[in-house]
Protein: AraC-type DNA-binding protein
Amino acid sequence: MDFGTQERRVFNLQDFGVKRGLAIGHYRYKQVKPGLERHQHKGALEICYCMKGQQHYKIGEQLYELNGNDIFVVPPNTVHSTGEYPEDKGELFWIQLLVDSSKGKLCNMPKEQTEFLLAALLDKSEHVFKGSFQLKFILEKLMVQLENFDSLLSKIMVDQLIAQLLLETVILSNKPQQNAPSVKLNELDKFIHKNLFRMIYVDEMANLVGMSVGYFKFWFKSKTGMPPREYVNRLKIEQAKLDLRTSKRITEVAFGLGFGTSQYFATTFKKFTGTTPKSFRRLQRE
DNA sequence: GTTCATTCGGAGGTAGAATG
DNA sequence: CATTCTACCTCCGAATGAAC
Structure:
């Protein structure tokens, strides 16, 4: 049941009789992993559902940034990678579907419905758009079914869930994107940058925008896709990368960003970058 | 001396439901 | 939309020790 405890899993959809499917996968990393090399999926489009944290994709020279609750579609036969970025801390699902209609039906849907859905997705490829709670629900259910696949009932469920998933994804892709950055979020950003050198508590941020702490956390996550604390730490680590290019000692950099100890700074740094401050500095100098 | 991995308890943060 | 409550859990920071 708790597939979330495993950090990464991939299912081959062919094994489950989904003729138009290649693979479906899920990861939940507590710290970054090495990035993905340039690769492509022959005849298959890939949909990525970034649930938590952040993820970058690069197609050609174009870089795409996904935050929590974002969806991204990679067209078939398109070379893509995570660029210079790692596979980031966070949670992500992906599914690969064959576009060639001669491979059979997709989830037992009538042909024209399948082609309609896939065409709609291809149309939105290389665009980032917002997901929904419903999607997470479907994806988790799907993974549980694949994990405990035992009967015809499972097969029916899997087909149903994939169909639901695609339908929901297409509906979301057509929704107008309200990505006007909120005024409150801008203020917060300024506040955080100004106070990057010290500890920043969540209740301070909540006060700043005039919300209760409890609601603030919910609101913040719905806007940025990550909890307040993580957002602050990401910014601190970005600043740390700059500071490490100077001749400051690592301990100084740590204290300068409000970390209580250099040890804790090192672990946090590694969580978001994949390397420790010392080796990061060494790499920069080479 | 400096940096960082490991371990561990408590503080603070998070998710989710119930409610106005 | 905003608030409060609560059970759970992660993260922070101190201590220790190893590697350089």
